[in-house]
Amino acid sequence: MSQSIFSRPVSMDYEHDHDRDHDRERDGKDMQAQDAEKNDDKTLPNDVFGDEADAEIKYKVLSWWQAGFLMVAETVSIGILSLPSVVAALGLVPSIILLVAIGLMSTYTGYTMGQFRWSFPHVQSMADAGEVLAGSFGREFLGMGQLLLIVFIMASHLLTFTVAMNTITEHGTCTVVFGVVGLVISYGLCLPRSSAKVSYLSVGSFLSVLSSVLIVMIAVGVQRPWKGELQAVADTNLYHAFLGVCNIVFSFSGHVAFFSFISELKDPREFPKSLCLLQGTDTILYIVSAVVIYCYAGPNVTSPALGSASPIIGKIAYGIALPTIIIGGVVNGHVASKYIYVRLFKGTDRIHKNDLVAVGSWVAITFGTWVVAWVIASAIPVFNNLLSLIASLFASWFTYGFNGMFWLYLNKDRLFRTPRKVFLTVVNLLMIGVAAAICGLGLWVSGRALHEDSGHRSFSCANNAKF
């Protein structure tokens, strides 16, 4: 199936959209003929990995469920740890509404990415998509943004690893040492080049985060550390409220890696199944865990949330969460390294080789990305502030804004053709507006938060655990 999808040239103006209007279905053949006459030889390249029949290293081997669990591991592992504190900051009702609304928005924009990839099968990264939208400038701009966002996410995982190790060992050694240990483990697990091998780890990552959160929910339910009243709507201000919004946005911000996962599917048309597995899992798990932990832990709930139970339960939960803390970072590290690797060897057969140059380049690229992530984790060791900075500066655009632009580009000749198209045009313009608002306000609140914690525990051996 994947060979038939990728072997034929794709017209720049042809839209592979499941939501074609009935009139386009009726006149589809005529429109295709018109497009072909209009574009002549104007075609796009095939997918980046090409024909892998005789390749030493094969990439297009993922089933939809493997891609789905990779997406779950990439998205769920870090974001869920900040959500109970968001409920405490906003109140139950606004938090649930925001989680459902942002979850639905993220599902829609994820599907838009699938549509864009079906129309332009050479797209393997946000950089490739940026080239479709704006030529070489778009390629460099989105490519750099994608790389920075993923490296910051890797840093979040290293930071959480140091918090976990300080909690488990009661600050058994310098925090910087724990960071180096996390770097070495993550680097080693990133060395396989194919995502298929990492996908099996992602199943363990999901079971890890699910088990640790269940332990915390049961523990706080039994211990009931908070016996006061719960707030349906919290008394807060714009600064603290928008810090919470940024953390929710970050919890759904896996879109930056979606093109990479789609490009390694056996059949890219099965991407909606992977997307549904991700969005159904994360939305339900986010709402249940955040609400339950907040209801029993109260307004003093910690972030990350695994510190909300007693010290003993916290140690157990962090120990069980270590696989997801590590593997979630590994998935992102793999995507970042592969972007650089593909960019370096694109158009050559080196990408499928197992020789010294190919293997040595992958080893060096992976090591470099993890070293940069470690530096960031050591420089900004305040968990919520790091999350809000990432969400406002990067995730808002990659999750919502650019995806609105993708849809508008796909439908640029039919934006107002029918009432349905008018509605979807407005929706996607709103997505761009939402991204701009999150970016602007988010930069303000995260900048203020970082200023208030300026220099606090950066590159320090101090204990960063919550208890």
TrEMBL record:
Q: Which Pfam families match?
A: Aa_trans
Which cellular compartments is it found in?
A: Membrane
Q: What is its main location?
A: membrane
Membrane topology term reads: Multi-pass membrane protein
Gene3D superfamilies according to UniProt: Amino acid/polyamine transporter I (1.20.1740.10)
Segments for region (Disordered): 1-47
Q: Where is the Amino acid transporter transmembrane domain?
A: 62-444
Q: Which residues cross the membrane?
A: 64-83, 89-111, 147-169, 175-191, 198-221, 241-263, 275-296, 316-335, 356-380, 386-410, 422-445
Q: Name the domain of life this protein comes from.
A: Eukaryota
Q: Which UniProt keywords apply?
A: Membrane, Transmembrane, Transmembrane helix
Instruction: Report whether Transmembrane helix shows up as a keyword of the record.
Output: yes
- Biased amino acid composition, Basic and acidic residues: 13-44
Q: Which GO terms describe its molecular function?
A: L-amino acid transmembrane transporter activity
Q: Name one GO cellular component term.
A: membrane
Against PANTHER family, the record matches this protein to: AMINO ACID TRANSPORTER, AMINO ACID TRANSPORTER (EUROFUNG)-RELATED
Spell out the family assignment given in the record's similarity comment. Belongs to the amino acid/polyamine transporter 2 family.
Protein name, as recorded: Neutral amino acid transporter
Provenance organism: Aspergillus mulundensis
**Organism lineage string:** Eukaryota, Fungi, Dikarya, Ascomycota, Pezizomycotina
